[in-house]
Structures are given as structure tokens and as C-alpha cells.
Amino acid sequence: MMRRTVDESVRELGADDALGEVPEILGQAPAMQDVCRAIGRLSQSNVTVLLTGESGSGKEVVARALHKHSPRAEAPFIALNMAAIPRDLMESELFGHERGAFTGAQAMRRGRFEQAEGGTLFLDEIGDMPAELQTRLLRVLSDGFYYRVGGHQPIKADVRVIAATHQNLEERVRQGLFREDLYHRLNVIRLRLPALRERSEDIPLLARHFLQKSAQELGVEPKRISDEALRFISQQPFPGNVRQLENLCHWLTVLAPAQVVKVEDLPVEMRQPPAAASTLARIDAPMASVAAPMPRSTAGASWTDSLVAEVERRLHEGVPDVMDTLARDFEAAVIRTALKHTHGRRIDAATRLGVGRNTITRKIQELQLED
After folding, report:
1. Which of these, 61, 194, 228, 371, could form a disulfide with 198 (CB 3.0-4.6 Å)?
2. Could you give the number of structural domains in the chain?
3. To which H or E segment does residue 190 belong?
4. What's the CA gap between 284 and 45, in Å, rounded?
5. What pLDDT digit, counting tens, does each position of 12-30 carry?
6. Is the pTM of this model over 0.70?
7. Same domain, yes or no: 97 and 242
8. What SS3 class is residue 306?
9. 149: which DSSP letter?
């Protein structure tokens, strides 16, 4: 019944409209066309949506598309990754706190629900939410009110909630790690994003888009990728999904030696035989340039090999002051990535990087990272 109501609510907004605005989820694969049709139909509704899919499959991109095409588009889109917030700060992060609510609370702070007022709140990695916070979230979804930490005045929540997870929530419910009643509150409409290996026919289109995007960020001529190289990468498993493909395109934009990328220009990890597949995932986040994100997890040889290759290239081309310029690029890449992760919040970025607020402000000015 709910699905039929949603379908009927927005027949004038087709899949092509959603696709055109969100190139990262473009694709000819039937599974992606289904996703884009769902975006068009769901965007006009306030119904809660649960996005599932592997890490890197584009859940936040879909959440942003749902918001962008909704009547709430002019209001804020606020994202919160539950896996990235220290457990003791989660409640304050989500609901805010009153002055004096706990040691160090020197001023009232608005939480993410309040920041998203009138808009959309995206709760990523919802499966990592601790039990006590699950109870509070359930109450908000049930009666529409919440309290700041230390507060006594109820605040009405006018927020659309979109949740996402790569975990099996049904299994976590069975294990007693996730509240069943909250699961049913979130699971009104479920939208599964396919892994990139399930839509390999979309890889050429995505690769061209990401190469164009990387070139624009760096202010250089876009690289082109040969048909042979496209066929080669289309056969790769991409365990890191769309995010891994985007990072590969960052890497190619900076390190591929020619304007047309050939198979031999691809990272050595990708060109190794299947027996070496355990190292393939390291291309998930090669360090290539100011615009390229830093490694997401493993600290193996992959990103350091890329660093060595970049040093050798600069030395070979006679680039002056290699140490200084490379250090600046390194710092810029780290700060840009941290700011992207915290959606531009400098204090949060400084905290995550372990530096002071004044330090990150000074570095942003020195490295000319201001928008």
C-alpha cells in the first residue's frame, strides 16, 4: 500500500530527470535504472527510506539525490556517520546539548536533528548505533519530539530521515544488537544499491565521468581511456565499488604518463593476476594528488608505491623544490579529505586530524584551500 502510494505521488518526475542530476549513479544496468526510478518516485514523499548496499556503492549519493529532488531541497541536508562518532558523543551529536549539561558543555549546541530542520537527516552506518541511542531515535520517529541532552523542553522534529547500512540489520536484530521496533520504523521503504560488479556495463560511463571530474578539480586536460583499457577495468571486481573506481580515476589523472590511458598505464596492483587479488583492494584509495583522497584503511605498500612513483616523476621532470611542493600537496590532500568527510566543518576536521582549530585555519589559508 505504501509503495503504491509513493509510486502514484510523483508520476511527473521520471527516472531520466533523477539520472541527469546525479551523474555518479548514471547507468544503463537494469538495477541502476530501478534505483533511479525509485529516486524519482520517493523524492516527493516524506516516507523514511533505508538504503542498503556494500561500502562505496553510493548510498550517500542516492540520499542526496532524494533530498535534491524533494520539496525539502532548499532546506539543509545533514549527514552523520554513526561509525565515525565516538560513542560518548553520539547523543549530543544527534540531539544537541544545553549549556552545563556535562563537563565541557560551555554553551548550548544544536544537534544534527536541529540543524536539519525542514530538510533531510542522513544517518549512515545506522547498524553501528548503540542501544541506548536506538531507543531515543525510535522515540523521535514515533512521536516526532526530542530533547537536547540536559534539556527539559521538547523540540518538534520536522526532518525526513534516510538511513543507510552495509550490514545485515535482520541478522543484527536476531543477535540482539539492533532494536526490532526501530528496524521496522526505518524499513518503511528499502532501496538496495547494487555493487559495481553487478553493473559492470556502467563502468566505462562512470570512468569517463570521473576522469572529467578529476581534471576539472585539478585544472588540467581530461585524460581519455582507450577501449582496451576500458574493457580491462570493466572486468575487475572493484571490491570498493564506485568509490574505488573514482579513486582510480584520480590516480590516472595525475600519474598516467600519456593523455590516452592504456592498459600498461593502470596501477600495477590492478594488472597483477587474479592470484594477487588480495592486494587489489588497496587501489581503493591511492594517494595521487591534492584532489585524490588518502587511503581508507590498509597501510600496505600501495599508497607508498604511488608516492615513490610521484617523487620519481617530479625528479625526472626537473620539478624544483620537490620536498616542499610534495609536502604541501600532502597536507592539502589530507585537509581537503578531512573537510569533505566533515562536510566543511573545520572544527570537526581539526579534531579528526588531531590538530588545533587555529592550525587548520592557518593551513587552509597557506595552501589556498578556501572556496
Report:
1. 194
2. 2
3. strand 189-192
4. 35
5. 333 344 444 444 456 788 8
6. no
7. no
8. helix
9. B
